[in-house]
Amino acid sequence: GAGVSQSPRYKVAKRGQDVALRCDPISGHVSLFWYQQALGQGPEFLTYFQNEAQLDKSGLPSDRFFAERPEGSVSTLKIQRTQQEDSAVYLCASSLVSGEREQFFGPGTRLTVL
Amino acid sequence: AQSVTQLGSHVSVSEGALVLLRCNYSSSVPPYLFWYVQYPNQGLQLLLKYTSAATLVKGINGFEAEFKKSETSFHLTKPSAHMSDAAEYFCAVTPNSGGYQKVTFGIGTKLQVIP
Fold first, then answer.
1. Is the pLDDT confidence value at A101 over 90?
2. pLDDT on residue B46
3. In the prediction, which pLDDT does A99 show?
4. Residue A44's CB: how many other CB atoms inside 10 A?
5. Distance between CA atoms of A95 and A104, rounded to whole angstroms?
């Protein structure tokens, strides 16, 4: 079956613009994660959903970052008033059940803020 | 609290030579440990995982890793490097306990394979 997909793959934004990044997890996967991967770094946890419930948002760097998963499948990560430091690859991952440690990653969205 | 340290942000090996990528972990509870590979412009792909069963774990593409509690290590090895192994490798740790737990990644090691 299809893996995790993300769109767009590349996004260029001017500083101050709002952006929305989409993640389509593997069908039936309960858990969904967002990570931020800065250049030369490993993925850093942003937020976690179990179905439609956002159970952990402790990694969101500021209140400009907002994520939702209203129907428990597709998720959107929104960044308001983008700043240059938001430039990174944003990775989405899903896993079949809560507590399942193996996560399946999408290809990421590379965000560049000018 | 948990963390991983990957020693060597860049490793170069000759084609056919042994690959050794180092990972040391810190965890206040027994851990699950993972190695992921990332090819350019792609997401992370799971190579192998340790979940407290066998300490020697075999993964895809001929890679394996050994969990050594006394050394708090989970080094990744492959006997003979192939050009297609050139990629970035990430070690990750999460607590071995029920329910949702955060996964913490290392900063990665870029593997270069020289023909």
1. no
2. 93
3. 67
4. 16
5. 6
Interface contacts A/B by beta carbons within 8 Å: 63
pLDDT tens for A68-97 read: 999 999 999 999 999 999 999 999 999 987
Q: What share of residues in chain A are helix, strand, coil (percent, to 5)?
A: 5, 50, 50
CA A31 to chain centre: 12
Q: Rounded to an integer, what distance in angstroms lies between the CA atom of residue B72 and that of residue B3?
A: 11
The helix/strand/coil state of B61 is helix
Residues 6+ apart with CB under 8 A from A104: A3, A4, A25, A26, A29, A93, A94, A95, B46
* Cβ <8 Å between A43 and B9: no
Question: What confidence category does residue B50 fall into, taking pLDDT thresholds of 50, 70 and 90?
Answer: very high
Q: Tell me, what DSSP letter sits at residue B97?
A: S
Q: Is A84 helix (H, G, I), strand (E, B) or coil?
A: helix
Side-chain half-sphere CA neighbours of A44 within 13 A = 14
Give yes or no for B43 touching A (CB within 8 A).
Answer: yes
Contact assignment for A45 to B43 by CB distance below 8 Å: no
